[in-house]
Amino acid sequence: MYPALSGQHAEYTISTLQAFASGDRTNSPNNLMGDIASKMSDQDMEAVANYVLGLN
Ligand code: HEM
Hints:
Elements lengths: L9 H13 L9 H6 L4 H13 L2
Helix pairs in contact: 1-3
The site of protoporphyrin IX containing FE has 14 residues, from helix 1 and helix 2.
């Protein structure tokens, strides 16, 4: 149910978070990702995307 993100490209993570935040992507259960992403600043998204890239 929760997709693995480790090693995911930072560009993909950022653009996906932006899509959840803006409502362009709405497919997470109960709009969980929209709730989270809409509270994140651009700087938060960049930081978390770089963190995710470094996992593994
Ligand atoms: C800051 C923390 C988080 C980040 C950076 C994040 C990031 C992402 C990303 C990038 C995707 C898209 C994955 C893909 O397209 O392959 C995703 C999907 C998803 N996330 Fe999160 N997530 C976070 C927190 C959470 C939390 C706390 C939950 C659950 C309580 C959650 C539940 C989900 C689910 C269920 C999906 C799949 C939606 C679908 O069906 O495509 N996420 N997340």
